[in-house]
Design a protein that fits this description.
- The chain is an alpha/beta fold.
- The protein has one domain (2-106).
- Helix content is 20%, strand content 36%.
- It is built from three helices and eleven strands; from the N terminus they run ββαββββββααβββ.
- The chain has helices spanning 14-23, 65-72, 75-78, and strands spanning 2-3, 8-12, 27-32, 40-45, 49-51, 55-57, 59-60, 63-64, 84-88, 98-99, 104-106.
- A hairpin with a 7-residue loop joins strand 3 (27-32) and strand 4.
- The N and C termini lie far apart (41 Å).
């Protein structure tokens, strides 16, 4: 696993990436998918990530974001979660995106 330069679009795992941001994690494990190349594990900084969503909800798919934060707050917990999946920003077919640092967490209330 290596660090990677550039900007990356999150194709799967926005909630996990936001949890890493909220916890102040420096590095985040990701699977980099590039056409014509085998998938590889990379270590990325939150500042390199772009989200297809401008906001996320505190409850999603029957889960609670606070529970995800709790799980990801320890190295042991993070080891049980699959890595986010990314591709280089600007690959054809991506939706519009925003820097991960700008994604808001909203309550359903």
């Amino acid at each position: 696993m290596t660090s990677e330069d550039g900007e990356f679009y999150i194709s799967d795992g926005v909630h996990r990436a936001i949890a890493a941001r909220e916890l102040g994690l420096i590095g985040l494990l990701a699977v980099l998918r590039e056409e014509g190349a085998p998938d590889r594990m990379v270590l990325l900084e939150v500042s390199q990530l772009y989200s297809p969503r401008r906001e996320i909800r505190g409850r999603y798919k029957g889960r609670n974001f606070e529970e995800l934060l709790q799980l990801m707050s320890s190295a042991e917990g993070r080891s049980t979660i699959r890595p986010i999946e990314v591709e280089r920003l600007g690959v054809p077919g991506q939706t519009c995106s925003v820097p991960l640092v700008d994604v808001r967490i909203v309550d359903e209330g």
